[in-house]
Amino acid sequence: MYQKLFSIAAFAATVLAQNATNSSTTGTPSLTALLGSTDSLSTLATAIEGVPGLGEMLSSASNVTILAPSNEAFEKFMSTPQAAALTSGDTEAIQALLSYHVLNGTYPASAVTEMPLFLPTMLNNSDYTNVTGGQVVEALLQGENVLFYSGLLNNATVTTADQNFTGGVVHIIDTVLTIPQNVSSTAIAAGLSGVAGALTQAELVGAVDSLEDVTIFAPNNAAFQAIGSALPNLTMDQLAGILQYHVVNGTVAYSSTLMNGTTVPAMAGGDLTITIVEGDVFVNSAKVIIPDVLVAGGVVHVIDNVLNPNNTDDAPQPTAEVQSAAFEGASSVASLGSLTSGVPTPTDSAAFGAAPTPADSQESPAGGEGAPEETGTPGAAPRVEGAMAAAALFAGAGVWLNA
């Protein structure tokens, strides 16, 4: 197992040792020299010594930021489902994971602030991401710590920053990043059984998982329970129309791009209106309670209300603890019953991390209210479903529940 870990680490190190020049000429060490002099990266250094020649694979790249897991990070990683998949010998999976740790551009720690940055990585493999320009990580300053959020809101803390090398800069992190999963897998891991069940009943799982550059506003389970009396009466097309109204296709709208008073077009037709009041972000009448959950095709924001495509003017009640349901006449239920009966229970309660909490302001992105307990444990990283079924998502877009 550790031989394979060394192979993984060696590939990571060779990816990082890009466009290196003679350190005696530049005064800046190559990545190999940097790793060799850094005790906490000895796993990577040992791996480089044992696997000669891999440094030429990506030697033409430069101007990068490397998020380099420490020895302890690799030790934690080896006990995760993600590592189990990689140690099976899937070189494509290994390359995907490690390319997700290489950022396009040089970002010193001082560039990370309390407003989130969404930085593109070298992960462009379409088996793992449908985000144009490369899957991203979220960089955020929390207190005195620089954090990088990845899939399932798992985070890694920078323990040693700004280690310059000839190809850019290295930040040593305490956790191996998690490649963002597809929407349905993320919903299950996050405990969003209402979303997962609704996608299944509407036969939209494959279509949604295959979307490129997408923003999804995903209601939490309480939101589905609030209109629970209406759910059993919906046809498949009606349910599909409601779900499509929560999807913005062709735009990845991270929280830092959501501005007060703007509108975005929903896939089902009609617009979604963004309102920001004292740092709280609303889409129509629904409040964003967990922002910026990275997924293979873009980003998911968890909201506290189910949006109604026939009630597009529904406005928020910023002072209310709970927003009124957008479906007139619907009443709440204690259980979602058949909607969620076939949805798997998350196998690892620690797999889904805590939402970031950027600084609040009138125009700030959504905060992290309502997030699960924070954890740095990475989860599994299944690939994006290969079958493209996007056409199914558009079918029946005009069939909505009448309010």
Bin the helical content. Answer: 10-25%
> Which term fits the overall shape?
elongated
How many helices in DSSP terms?
13
Range of strand content: 15-25%
Query: Structural class, please?
Result: alpha+beta
> Which stretches are poorly predicted, pLDDT < 50 over at least 5 residues?
5-24, 50-60, 358-403
Order of helical and strand elements: HHHHEHHHEEEEEEHHHEHHEEEEEEH
Q: Strand order across the biggest sheet?
A: 2-1-7-6-5-4-3
Mean pLDDT across all amino acids: 80
Cα radius of gyration in angstroms: 22 Å
Sketch the major β-sheet: 7 strands, mixed
The total beta strand count reads: 14
First and last CA, distance: 58 Å
How would you sum up this structure in a few lines?
The chain is α+β, with helices and mostly antiparallel strands and 403 residues long. It is built from 13 helices and 14 strands. The strands form two sheets. The protein has a seven-stranded mixed β-sheet.
Could you explain how this protein is built, in words?
The chain has 403 residues and is of the alpha+beta class. Helices cover 24% and strands 20% of the residues. The protein has 13 helices and 14 strands. It has helices at 2-16, 23-26, 31-36, 42-50, 71-77, 81-86, 91-99, 183-189, 193-201, 205-209, 221-226, 236-244, 390-394, and strands at 64-69, 102-104, 117-120, 136-142, 145-149, 155-165, 168-173, 214-219, 247-249, 263-265, 271-277, 280-283, 286-295, 298-303. It has a seven-stranded mixed sheet with strand order 2-1-7-6-5-4-3. A seven-stranded mixed sheet has the order 9-8-14-13-12-11-10. The longest helix is centred in the first third of the chain and has 15 residues, at 2-16. The relative contact order is 0.15.
